[in-house]
Amino acid sequence: MDEVAASLGGNKSEAEGLAAQLAASKQQAEELQGQLAALGAEGAANLASAAVQTIEGLMSEAAGLAGRIGEAQAQVLAIRQGSLLTRGTAGTATTPVGSSSAPTFNPRKFDPTKLAGLRRYSEAGTAEGKLYRSDGSPHSDRVLRARPPGSSPFPPGSVRGRYRDTTPNRGHIEGEVAATMHRDQLNEATLYLNAEPCDNRGQGCKENTHAFVPEGSVLNIWAVNDDGSRVFKRVNGTGEAFNGQAGN
Predict the structure, then answer these.
(1) Is the CA virtual torsion 237, 200, 113, 185 positive or negative?
(2) Using CA atoms, how far apart are residues 153 and 247, in angstroms rounded to an integer?
(3) 89 pairs with which residues across the strands?
(4) Backbone dihedral angles phi then psi of residue 196, each to the nearest 5 degrees
(5) pTM of the full structure
(6) What's the mean pLDDT when you consider all of the chain?
(7) CA angle at residue 94 from 91 to 97, to 5 degrees?
(8) Beta strands across the sheet bearing 128-133
(9) Is the dihedral of CA 66, 71, 73, 74 positive or negative?
(10) pLDDT tens across 211-242, in order?
(11) What pLDDT sits at residue 25?
């Protein structure tokens, strides 16, 4: 069993290495596309552009494969650990008190299955997300999408001046999720996105989501970019963006 886990670990490293190599190939193809366009070779430039898109898809697949291999490796290790825990005396197996066959959801561990239904950002043309409760169950079957620019999910006048022009208050998914956490009184939730939270020169979700998440609550964010790179952020809510109750 240890050999299987080690073999899977090697496969995972190879998949991650392939993703890195594809990233380098993508950069080279983009440079070639630019050179061809500058020379006026439109047809060849279009072919190079198509190659870039194909490489992007392969990068995403390689990253997803690495994640799935990692899951398989973790499952093999769990089987090994479980066999050690349940090995009884006289050749009989005993089940530890309080054990459960159902895996426990760990928001800090990336789960590629939580991306089901989400398109790549370049394909969707906008941010998409799925929200999960603290036990890993879907909050709803709905795929979240950014609202029209400037559209706030919070009651008029409830957001303090310094946060009114930040993106959580102007249509981005992180703001809608924060409003949902207020409304449904969620102490912890996990959000999977097809793109990492925006910066927007300090006015974005990366720097300001914590102020919209309810005080004392936690929002875990997993984002997978078009190049296959993953970003994890654990947001500890302060609720400081509001004058009063945000979810009413």
Answers:
(1) positive
(2) 9
(3) none
(4) -70, 155
(5) 0.60
(6) 84
(7) 165
(8) 144-145, 128-133, 188-193, 218-224, 230-236
(9) positive
(10) 999 999 999 999 999 999 999 999 999 999 99
(11) 83
